[in-house]
Write a structure and sequence with these properties.
about 110 residues, 434 Repressor (Amino-terminal Domain), 2 domains, about 0% strand
């Protein structure tokens, strides 16, 4: 695993959600020092930590491991989910409202 790229992805997701490293540490029950070490590419997260980070942010493991996963072909649903998770929480909520309106307007 390229720890530097993982750390960059983690920092990007954290900042996108307006969280400090201290706040993320509290949400996933880790120390702020450990979160900063992950973001600096110094430490390797365990599977348990990866799950805690994904639940705390919230994001998919794919978003944090995007530089490690190899896909030969993206299907439409996977691509849509990736794009959805790249949105801010406010944008996600707005899209959910729009989709709900779209799907229920024909009923």
């Amino acid at each position: 695993m390229d720890l530097q790229k993982f750390g960059e992805a983690l920092r990007e997701e954290r900042k996108k959600r307006g969280l400090t490293s201290d706040q993320l540490a509290e949400l996933c029950e880790r120390t702020p020092v450990y979160i900063r070490q992950l973001e600096a590419g110094i430490k390797t997260p365990s599977l348990k930590t990866l799950i805690a980070l994904c639940n705390a942010l919230p994001c998919s493991p794919e978003q944090l491991l995007t530089n490690e996963l190899r896909y030969h072909e993206w299907d439409n649903a996977t691509d849509l989910m990736r794009q959805f998770h790249a949105l801010t929480p406010k944008q996600q909520e707005q899209l959910k409202i729009l989709m709900d309106t779209f799907f229920h307007s024909g009923s």
